[in-house]
Amino acid sequence: GGLEVLMLGDRWVEVHVAPHELVVNPGDMMARWMNDRWRSTLHRVVNPPAEAGGGNSRQSIAYFGNPNYDAEVRCLDACAGTGNPLKYTPVLAGHHMYEKSLKHAADS
Questions:
Q1: Which phi and psi angles does 91 have, rounded to 5°?
Q2: Which residues of the chain have pLDDT under 50?
């Protein structure tokens, strides 16, 4: 226990994972490439509830992969079309990361 995701913008929900399963959050640039077919999720890790007994083990490994600073991030052709319009305009990866860092700093 302990991993939670924000649902519908205002409700934290615990993520339940069966043994030998893997949870992946693809990140916001992947969401842009996939036109939200795979979405980035705001998440947090909290202390497991007391009734969990403290005997649970959890392994978390953070891996952050980013495209080159000057790479254009645009929707893949297979992820948009009739009935599924583009949700994002193309953006340079470095500019996108910079803008996110400014927003994060302003929110802190």
A1: -145, 150
A2: none
- The Cα-based distances of 61 to 2, 7, 14, 23, 39 in angstroms read 15, 23, 18, 11, 19
H-only helix segments in 1-108: 28-33, 93-107
Please report the DSSP string for 61-88 in residue order: --------TT-EE---GGG-BTTB---S
pLDDT at 68: 94
Q: Which residue from 1, 30, 29, 26 is spatially nearest to 14, judged by alpha carbons?
A: 1
pTM here?
0.69
Give the model's pLDDT for residue 42. 87
